[in-house]
Amino acid sequence: MKLLDLFQELTIHPKNAEELKGLILQLAIQGKLTKNWREQNQNVEPASTLLSKITAEKEALIKAKKIKKEKPLPEIPKDEIPFRIPEYWDWERLANISSINGGFAFKSSLYVDEGVRVVRISDFDEKGFKSDKIVRYYYSEELADYLLEEKNILMAMTGGTVGKTYFVRSLAEKMVVNQRVATIKLLPLISEKYINCVIQTRLIKDVVEEAKNSTNDNISMSDIKNFFIPVPPLEEQKAIVEIVEQLFKEVEALEEQTKARVQLKEDFVTSALAQLTNEDTSQSWSFLQPHFNEFFTEKSGVQKLRESILQLAVQGKLTKRWRAANPDIEPASTLLAKIKAEKEELIKTKKIKKEKPLPEITEEEIPYELPDGWVWCRMQEVGLFERGKSKHRPRNDIRLFSEGTYPLVQTGDVSAAKKTGGLITTNKTFYNDFGLKQSRMWPKGTLCITIAANIAETGILNFDACFPDSVVGFTTIKSDSILSNYIEYFITVMKSDLEHYAPSTAQKNINLGILYELKFPFPPLDEVKAIVEMVNTLMALCDQLEQAIEEGEVQIQQLMQSCLREVFE
Question: Residue 173's pLDDT is what?
Fold first, then answer.
C-alpha cells in the first residue's frame, strides 16, 4: 500500500503528520488496513449478527428505563452508501448503536464555586479537557441523564469549532454536559475506540460541513444520530484499533524526529548567521557555503539568510576583499561634503526649503565600527527625504481620484513591491489634473518608504507617480541613483527598530523626523555599487534556495495527493 510504504518520506514536513493520520483512519474504516487480518480470521461473527445483538441490547435497556425510546430511523438507502466495505461488514446509523444526548440548559447565573463540573464547548478540544475557566453547578437528580461517563465521545454542536470531538478515556471527577455539546454513549458489544476512529474521518467531517450554513455554524442532534457508520465484526474492530494506534505511534515518532532535525538545522543556521555578522565574515561564509542546500531547507532559514546579507552589507563586511583590491577610491566624507554644498545651493535658489540643523553623532551613539573610507552621518544628510502631499485616502475627495491619468502610489503598493523584486510596478488609483495641483509627481527611480500602516516597507518607482503623506520619497543629490538601493537595504535592516517608534494605535505611524535622525553608515559611492552588485548576486542564491524548497514541497504534496487518490478513489 503506497501510503504505508511512503511513511518516512511523507513526514519530512511536520505539517503532514495530521494529514497522514487522517489517511490512516480513512483506510481503517474502509477495511484496507485489515485485509491480511481477514484472510487469517475467516470464521468471525459477521457484523449483521453483531448488529442484531446490539438491537436486542438496546431494547432491553429501554425496557429497563436506562435509556429513552426514540423514533426508528430509516434504513440506509443503497444509493447513499459513500464507499464499498468488505464482506461481513455492514452500514448502520450512529443512533442505532448508541445513545446520543444533548446537554442540560444551565443558567450561567447559577454557577457556583463548588459542585459538579460543567463541560461547555470551550472546555475541551481533541487533546482533552482544559483546566482554565472551569465552571460548576449544584448537582441534583435532574442532571443524572447528562452525566459524562468514561469512553463517551463529546461533539461540539455550535460555534466556530462545531464538529470537534473528544474521546473521554478517563474522568478525574464528576462532570455534566451543557446543551451545546452532544454526548455519544456507545452500546455494549461495540468498540468505543473504533467508533471514535470513524468519528474523526472525512466521512463524518463532510456531513458536519454540509450541515453548517452561512448564518449559523451548527449541527443538529438529528444530523449526529443519522451519521453513517461502517460496522466491521467486533473482533475486526479491535484489530483495526490496534493497527491504527500502532501506526499513529510511528507517525508521531517520525514527526518528532523531523521536528528535531528541523530544530537542529535552525540552530545551525542561527549560529552560522550570527558568526557571519559578528565574527570573521569571510571565514564563516566559506564554512557555510558548501552546506547551503543541506541546511537551508526551510523558508524561515532562507529569510534569516536574506536578513543577514543585508546586515553584512550595511556593516561593510560583504566588501572587505573589494576594499583591499580598490584602495584608491573617493571616501564617503568627500561625497557627503559635495551633497551638503549642493543642498545649500538649492536652498539659496529656493528650490528646496532650509533644513533644521541635525544633532552631531557622538562617539557614545556609534553602534559599530565602520571600515576605512566610510562615515557615520544622519540619514537626511545623504539626499532629499520628503513626504507625499496628496490626500491620504481616495474617499476624502472623489474628484481627485476619478477619471484620472496620473498614477497614485499608496502604502499597499509599496508593500507589494517585495513580490516584484522591489519595484513598484502597478497601481489601481489615478489622480486627475485638479488633484495634481495639490500634490507633485515623483520621478521613476524614486525610493518610497512607508511611515504609516506597514512601517518601513520600501519600493522603487517604476513610473512617474504621486503618493500620499503616508509615504516618504527619497531622491539623490550629486550621487548615482544606485544609492537608493543601499538606503533600501538599510531601512530593511532598521525595520524592527523603526516599528518601535510607532504608537500602539489602530493607525500606526512614525514621524519623518525619526528617519532624518537615523544614524546612517555611509560608504564611498564606488563601494555602494559593489555592495548592490554583491547583494543582488546573494539574493539570487536565496531565490534558488527557496525555489528548491518549493519544488521539494511540491513533490511531497504530489506524493500525498497520490495517496489520497489511492484512498478515496
Answer: 92
Which ranges in the chain are annotated with CATH 3.90.220.20?
95-228, 330-523
Range 80-84 contact pairs with CB under 8 angstroms and sequence separation of 24 or more: 80/228, 81/228, 82/203, 82/228, 83/30, 83/568, 84/30
User: Which position has the grid cell 491504527?
Assistant: 244
Which cell is 229 given?
Answer: 457508520
Strand, coil or helix: 238: helix
- Residue pair 158/164 in contact (Cβ under 8 Å)? The answer is no
Strand ranges in 190-233 using DSSP code E only, listed in sequence order = 228-231
Rounded Cα–Cα distance for residues 458 and 492 (Å): 8
Please check the confidence at residue 259 and state whether its pLDDT lies above 80: no
Model pTM above 0.90: no
- Residue with the three cell numbers 459524562: 148
Q: How far apart are the first and last CA of the chain?
A: 14
Cell of 419: 513580490
CA 201/CA 28 separation, integer angstroms: 10
Distance of CA 107 to the CA centre of its chain: 38
Tens-place pLDDT, residues 410-453 = 888 898 888 777 888 876 677 766 555 566 788 888 999 999 88
CA distance 11 to 17: 6
Q: Which of 6-20, 94-108, 223-237, 541-555 has the lowest mean pLDDT?
A: 6-20
Total number of residues shown for the chain: 569
Can you list the positions of beta strands (E) in 373-427?
375-378, 383-387, 406-408, 423-424
Could you read off the pLDDT of 174-229 as tens digits, one per residue? 999 998 999 999 998 999 999 999 999 999 998 988 877 656 788 999 999 999 99
CB 441 within 8 A of CB 465: yes
- 203 CB contacts (<8 Å, ≥6 apart)? 26, 29, 82, 227, 228, 230
pLDDT digit string, tens, across residues 122-181: 999 999 999 888 999 999 888 988 999 999 999 999 888 899 999 999 999 999 999 899
The CATH number fitting domain 330-523, selected from 3.90.220.20, 2.30.42.10, 3.40.190.10, 3.40.50.2300: 3.90.220.20
CA 441 to chain centre: 38
Q: What is the spatial distance between Cα 478 and Cα 29, in angstroms, rounded to a whole number?
A: 74
Note whether 71 and 81 are within 8 A (CB): no
Please tell me the CATH superfamily of domain 95-228, with its number: DNA methylase specificity domains (3.90.220.20)
Contact indicator for 468, 413 with CB cutoff of 8 Å:
no
